[in-house]
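Thread: "does anyone have the structure for this chain?"

Original post by V.I.:
We have the sequence but no experimental structure in hand. Need at least a predicted one for the grant figures.
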Amino acid sequence: MTIQYKEYELLKKALRRDYWDEIEICYFLLGCVRLSERGLGDELYNLISGEEIKKDSLRRNRYNKLDADFHDLLKTWRQADHDYRYRKKNSWLWDKYYCLHWGQANSSSDEFQECFKWGLGKGLINQEDLDNILDAESIEKDSVGKVPLKNKERENRLRLIGVMLDILTDEATKKKFTSESQLKEYIRENYAGEGLSQRLLADVFKDAKSLVDKKK
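Reply from O.Q.:
Generated one for you, tokens below.
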């Protein structure tokens, strides 16, 4: 039975997810989504209109063109040199913003551009989070294989250090926090600048805690 979705309903659902798999990524770049239990069924929907794209005699050419474009994109994705820091640990899911960043370089479809523009306008795509995704193809590794920080990312890290220093040396605030969520919320409300969004703070705090080794 065909389900009729409202305009932008499926797009909103997709953009509210933090991670996508390679199937979702490649269909999203064509302005479509497959809906089934395993994501590989015959139900192909337009993300903007919510209408099903049927494989019938009237629309077979459109369906076949989308199918061919999808497999071409999937091949390009699988052969690309990806930055695996943006893949969710122990899974095949990828950070949504990394996918969008990759899509901007690999898809020119009008449908993708419209989806992207709508997501920005509705606040479902955060431009700062997108800007902070490193382009894996432009990163130069040093002689021991380490990935150096870009200037922008370095500035963001220094800004956060400055914020933490300000908080820790202010008698009115340094003993105020009982949880990480309180600290992040305080930073969001009281400090301005790139690299201080809730999403980025969560990622940086997570990475930072993994490096902490307390003295006994």
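V.I.: this helps a lot. The two ends are 63 Å apart (CA to CA).
O.Q.: and DSSP finds nine helices and four strands in the chain.
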